[in-house]
């Protein structure tokens, strides 16, 4: 995936949601626990979501303990599987 202006927002939203759930995407990619093609697919799925503003609101605070992604997140299931 090429990170361009269209993909950039969703790239960072996905990384933020993963971080909020207690995961480091860079580390997961480096260890190949998350294959690059799967991460790209997750960013593409995020791009189809109409809740970017809600996502930004969720990411505006950082919980004391990792939290599951919100129900509106199209990658909630994927992130939950990765987390476990």
From TrEMBL:
Keywords, in A-Z order: Plasmid
One Pfam family here: DUF6455
DUF6455 domain location: 4-83
Domain of life: Bacteria
Protein name from the UniProt record: DUF6455 family protein
Organism encoding this protein: Thioclava litoralis
